Amino acid sequence: MSTHLLAIDLGAESGRGVLGAFERERLVCREIHRFPNGGVRILEREYWDIFRIAAEVKVAVGKAVEAASGERLASIGVDSWAVDFGLVGRSGELIGGVHHYRDSRTEGVMERVFSVVPAAEIYRLTGVQFLPFNTIYQLVALKEAEPRLLAAADTLLMVGELITYFLTGERVAEFTNATTTQLFEADAKRWSERLFTALDLPREIMPAVVPAGTRVGPLLRAVAEETGAHGAAVVLPAVHDTGSAVAAVPGEGENWAYISSGTWSLVGLELPEAILTEESRSLNISNEGGVFGTYRFLKNVMGLWLIQECRRAWQREGYDEDYAALARLAQEAEPLVAHIDPDDPRFFRPGEMPARILAYLKERGQPLPASRGALVRCILESLALKYRYVLEQLQKASGRSVDVIHIVGGGARNELLNQMTADATGCTVIAGPYEATAVGNLIVQGIGLGLIEDLKAARALVRRSFPVATYAPQRSAAWDEAYARFCELIQGRAVES
What is the rounded CA–CA span in Å between residue 265 and residue 306? Predict the structure, then answer.
């Protein structure tokens, strides 16, 4: 009988269940359930519909049992986006809503935190990139707005671990996800007593931190009966979805970088230890926990969110091209005309993205795109140029050189962006696996169950199991000239201490 594993992969735009099975020294995957996801706006606040997500997860488990056709469903693992959390009360029930990281409640909080604990000290402790929606700032915002709610909490669980709690009744924090909170000390590998005390946050609500691959327990009896998944264990993958995606990167040696490409682009290196230098802080580089003794030295770059939001705006106007059609229109547009900084704060919030991009270009005296294809090309080229900019920072701060960029995730299907990335950076780009997050989730479960020896063996399994596409750089002076203009465009952005 084949051994089946189920990856529950929760993304900001959609969630899915992917069933994996080991067949003739290969990992074979098939998606058995997908559902839309996204924020829900209630009374000027942005939330996640966490109970609907939990219901869809149980549907996925039931479909996995059916798809396994009587063979063994050995385990289930849940990964998700980072930073957002729910609070569990003393009765074991969820209290309050689960806020979306794009909610405006954290505006100005980061600066108020810096007045209590300087940014330089926070970075020396945690090594995490300063982003206004990090868990630390969400918690401070909650304390300021709803102190009684925080006082009533017994346990804080990040989204992935919250869904795991709904399945098992067990409350834990997984290492890769804990490190994204900016409340976890990178060197000491523990929750930071200094930060909790200084910010008057309740340290006691933070659960024990365990590594990826930990077996949490069986399904609750009610869940097993509802889904039919009797005997299935729940095993923690890298619960942070980027951690799972990077686990599946089929890299060899050291001179490679990765881009986990989707709603966000996570651009980084895999290192054995965190780098907590003043240089890496000044460049706002994040040190996030990886699987099995690694760290992800990376930066968040606004990703295909920009195109997703443009498409939503165009749909409201009656234009309903899919992403492939938009890429074709971009291919036909004139190259290297105008560019944006994808990480400009105005692009963070949802709504009216084409108008915001046009306003940005107009303010800076750049030519305005004359068509939807030209605007999409502007976005894609800007992403490729930002990847080069970030990779140069990562190499400078780490001392590593990069010859190959592995692009994984759904965005790796964008052939035009892949080629642009090769052309902009001068590196060979290898795209795939496209389902990297689910694949990484499955292989870490496999290591946790003893079905795969270690991470090296898991990556060899990935190389045997999934095709990749290779893009050789086609260098030109035009890209270097565009990059020089791009650097001038974004020069001077830094986090103040």
Answer: 11
